Amino acid sequence: MGLPGRRAGFFLISVACAGAMGFAFYAQYVMGLEPCPLCMLQRVGVVAAGVLALIAGLINPRRWGFRLWSLLVALAAMAGGAVSIRQLWLQSLPPDQVPQCGPGLDYLLQTLPFTHAMEKILMGSGECAVVDWRFLGMAMPFWVLTFFVLVILFVLFQQRPMRAR
Fold first, then answer.
1. Of the candidates 151, 148, 97, which has an alpha carbon nearest to the alpha carbon of residue 126?
2. What is the DSSP letter of 136?
3. Three-state DSSP state, 135
4. Burial class for 81, CB neighbours closer than 10 Å (0-12, 13-18, 19+)
5. Other residues' Cβ atoms within 10 Å of the Cβ of residue 43
6. Looking at residue 150, what is its pLDDT?
7. Phi and psi (nearest 5°) for 163?
8. 3-state class (DSSP) for residue 19
9. Which domains can be identified in the chain, with CATH numbers?
10. pTM of the predicted model, to two decimals?
């Protein structure tokens, strides 16, 4: 069995992102875990990486186009990973250093200019520091970060020279 080609690799990333979002919705609507603002930004990273990978798979770019689309997918994953790291940092703070809970995401986006709202969201708040779910002892942002790292590694792996068959 051979390794996936570049086009199949992009489709594989988009399917993995769809699966990750499927689990996010399962966690929210079946398990009852309400996403905090940083969780929502991580979802944006997953969706962005998935959509970019899907578009790249559909257009099947060659040479420099392939590298450009790979870079875009990796950048979306890096942005999402950075948000995951921020949330993990907030979760590691002692309780007396956790920021107070702030207004909801909808309120921030409706009342503040976009850049100010994003700044407040990225600062995090008390609800972002709460750990409601663990798997193998690790919180959800750890697993989302792991997902983003795997996407980035896969994109880098796809950069390997293709051999003629």
1. 97
2. T
3. strand
4. buried
5. 19
6. 97
7. -90, 145
8. helix
9. 6-95+131-158 (1.20.1550.10)
10. 0.81
Overall residue count recorded for the chain in this entry: 165
Per-residue CA distances from 12 to 49, 99, 105 (Å): 11, 38, 31
CA 145 to chain centre: 7
CA–CA separation, 149 vs 74, rounded Å?
A: 9
Question: Look-up: residue for tokens 């570049």?
Answer: 6
Planar angle of CA 20, 135, 4, nearest 5 degrees: 40
User: Confidence class of residue 94 from pLDDT cuts 50, 70 and 90?
Assistant: confident
**Which pair of structure tokens corresponds to residue 80?**
């999402």
pLDDT tens digits for range 33-67: 888 888 889 999 999 999 999 999 999 888 888 99
Q: Residue 154's CB: how many other CB atoms inside 10 A?
A: 20
Higher pLDDT, residue 165 or 56: 56
Q: What is the 3-state secondary structure (H, E, C) of 22-80?
A: HHHHHHHHCCCCCCCHHHHHHHHHHHHHHHHHHHHHHHCCCHHHHHHHHHHHHHHHHHH
Q: What is the pLDDT of residue 164?
A: 43
Instruction: Output the six-digit token pair for 105.
Output: 């995401």
CB atoms under 10 Å from CB of 94, counted, come to: 6
On the question of pLDDT at 165 being above 50, the answer is: no
